[in-house]
Here is the input.
Amino acid sequence: MSDPNAGRLEITCPCCEAKIIVDRTTGTILRHDAKADPKGSGSISDIMQGLAAKKASSEQLFQREMDSMKDRDRLLDEKLQEAVKRAKEMKDEKLIRPIDLE
Here is the structure.
């Protein structure tokens, strides 16, 4: 029988000591187990502050990604227009096929 973990690679992060399981063939992360907090769960106010900070960072990340998507559309449109312009310019040129060079 084959080992079910044969295609997986287990890595321990040197910074946070989290365990990361990666698929060897694709390189995708299959599982991420963060190291347990040694202090315990903390007080309710600490937990709420942590959640508020995570929410704020998530909203900032979302906004940054939305801005990049708007900019991405503009950049893709510019690239398309440039490619169309080059194609029209090349239309008049006679293309040399590799077989013609022999």
